Structure formats: C-alpha cells, structure tokens
C-alpha cells in the first residue's frame, strides 16, 4: 500500500490540521483536494490549519488547490490558515491568491521541516519516545500565539521536535538527555538558539545539578522567555505516548516511572514549582491572546 502523503489530525481545541509531506505534485492532488473538501464541507471545524512544515515543493496545480480551499473555507465559515511555510513558498502562495493575513509562522527554508526529519531519524528505534515527540510538537504548534514575535515560532516548534533526541543511542554521551541533545545539535551546526532550548528544556538545570553536570549545561546560555515557557508547557502537558495530560498527572507519572531515588525525584522539590510557574505563564498568555 502506498504511503499517504497527506496527514489529517485534530488539535485539542477542535482545529483540524492537514499536513502534506514531501513533494506535493500532481500525484498528490487528488488526495490533498479530497482531504480539504472533506474537512471544510463535512467536518466544518472552527479552524483549518494547513501545516506546510514538511513540504519540499508545491507545484502550481496544488498552489491553486490551496488557494481555492481558502475561498471554500470562507463560504463554509471555516477559518483557513497556512502555517510554517518558507518565505519562498509564502511568496508563491500570495501570487496564487492566498491572502498574506492567512500566512502564519513563516520561516526560513527548512528549520521546522529539518527538525522533524532529524528527530524521526534519531528516534526511529524508540517508538514511545517518538509518539511523545509528535505530541509535544503538535502541542507547541497550538500555542505559538502566546509568543511575542513570528520569528519565535520556528525556534519553538523546531526545539519541540528535537527536545528528546538525547535519548537516541547514537546521540547519548553524558547520559543526561537534554545536555546530550544540545551537544549533538551544536556539534552538527544547528542554530545555537535551538540547541540551547533543547539543552535547557523543562528546567533541565535542576536535574543537571543532581547529576553533577551543571557546569557542562551552563555552556549553553539559558533563555528566560515566552519561547522557553512554551517548550516547557508543551513537554509537561504531553505524556510518554503523546497523550495530553494535566501537569500534576504528568509529574506523578514521571515520579512513578523514574523511581524515588532517581535524579528526577531528587530534583523534584525545586523543579516542580518552576514548571508550575512556566505552565501558569503560558496559560495566562493564552487567555490574553484569546
């Protein structure tokens, strides 16, 4: 059976996300058009998000399909947005008739797409970790409206895809996965901001101190921003299998899985309040954005 090139998912807020993959040419047109029409005419969600993060190329025929879908959404009172396209693809969509106001989180040519591919490659032998990663990236995509600048969205979503690559056997170095992920990304030339977000995700410094790795982790500057908060929120509200969880449930599950003598458990009294504050700040920003 041929691999589907158009993925359809539903966010927790009811928005439907359609993600084409790879080269979107004439061979994908029927599948893409069917997915768009089915969602807009029959599902009729409040929002339809066309996530183009994993699109390598979009031919003129499918540019027209997306432009027509935007108009059909207007007719059916479904708000249609296009997320995570490159600047070059954004120009092509505008030329095809897609309003610039529909384009969100426009980024450089390949940051989010390459992050997803690298994570998928490294975590291929860790299916539960991959499911968690997909859930965290999806969660991050859903809260980009809490960020102060469009440019922050690419860094957040890329870091969400990459935050747990330190678990991959080929990346493992110190045994502390946030640090190992950051070291790997820095070593292969990824933007330092992404490497630092990965290294410090979910208040990693609290656990690094227990590991005796605080000095190593301090080689990565820690940012105290809405982006760092959003990454913590995404990670700490998604469970091991990609299921959305409340923070308290997530923390209890973490303590149960790691055990009472683990570095995670020893760091917990100091780390948990910081996690709660980050989640609270994101929820406050969500209310403001709404």
Description:
The chain folds into two domains: 99 residues, Transcription Regulator spoIIAA (2-Layer Sandwich); 179 residues, Hypothetical protein af1432. The strands form two sheets. A five-stranded mixed beta sheet has the order 1-2-4-6-7. The N and C termini lie far apart (43 Å). The chain is elongated. α11 packs across α13 and α12 packs antiparallel against α13. With 290 residues, the chain is of the alpha/beta class. The protein contains 13 helices and seven strands. A hairpin with a 5-residue loop joins β1 and β2. The mean pLDDT is 92.
Structure, briefly:
With 290 residues, the chain is of the alpha/beta class. The protein has helices spanning 29-43, 60-75, 87-95, 111-122, 127-141, 150-162, 177-187, 192-199, 204-211, 214-217, 226-236, 247-258, 263-289; strands spanning 6-10, 16-20, 22-24, 47-51, 55-58, 79-83, 103-104. The protein contains 13 helices and seven strands.
Strand proportion, as a percent range, falls in: 5-15%
Order of helices and strands: EEEHEEHEHEHHHHHHHHHH
Strand segment count: 7
Which architecture of the largest domain per CATH? Answer: Orthogonal Bundle
Characterize the largest beta sheet: strand count, sense, and whether it forms a barrel: 5 strands, mixed
CATH fold descriptor of the largest domain: Hypothetical protein af1432
Structural class: alpha/beta
Poorly predicted runs are: none
Question: What's the end-to-end separation, in Å?
Answer: 43 Å
Tally the structural domains: 2
The percent range for helix content is 55-70%
CATH class of the largest domain: Mainly Alpha
- Read across the widest sheet, the strand sequence of neighbours is 1-2-4-6-7
Q: Overall mean pLDDT score?
A: 92
Figure out the total of helices: 13
Shape: elongated
Radius of gyration: 19 Å
Oligomer: single chain
């Amino acid at each position: 059976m041929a691999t589907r090139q158009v993925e359809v998912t539903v966010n927790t807020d009811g928005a439907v996300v359609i993600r084409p993959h790879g080269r979107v040419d004439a061979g994908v047109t029927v599948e893409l058009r069917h997915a768009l029409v089915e969602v807009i005419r029959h599902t009729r969600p409040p929002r339809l998000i066309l996530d183009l993060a994993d699109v390598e190329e979009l031919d003129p025929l499918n540019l027209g399909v997306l432009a027509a879908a935007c108009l059909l959404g207007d007719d059916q009172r479904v708000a249609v947005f296009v997320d995570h396209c490159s600047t070059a693809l954004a120009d092509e969509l505008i030329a095809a008739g897609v309003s610039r106001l529909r384009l969100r989180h426009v980024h450089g040519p390949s940051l989010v797409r390459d992050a997803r591919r690298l994570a998928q490659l490294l975590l291929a032998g860790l299916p539960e970790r991959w499911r968690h990663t997909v859930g965290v990236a999806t969660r991050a995509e859903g809260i980009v409206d809490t960020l102060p600048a469009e440019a922050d969205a690419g860094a957040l979503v890329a870091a969400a895809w990459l935050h747990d690559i330190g678990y991959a056997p080929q990346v493992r170095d110190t045994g502390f996965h946030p640090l190992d992920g950051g070291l790997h990304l820095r070593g292969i030339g990824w933007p330092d901001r992404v490497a630092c977000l990965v290294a410090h995700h979910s208040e990693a410094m609290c656990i690094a101190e227990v590991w005796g790795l605080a000095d190593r982790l301090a080689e990565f500057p820690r940012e105290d921003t809405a982006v760092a908060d959003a990454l913590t929120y995404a990670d700490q509200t998604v469970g091991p299998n990609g299921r959305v969880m409340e923070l308290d449930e997530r923390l209890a599950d973490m303590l149960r899985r790691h055990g009472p003598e683990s570095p995670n458990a020893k760091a917990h009294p100091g780390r948990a309040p910081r996690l709660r504050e980050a989640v609270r700040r994101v929820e406050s920003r969500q209310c403001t954005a709404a």
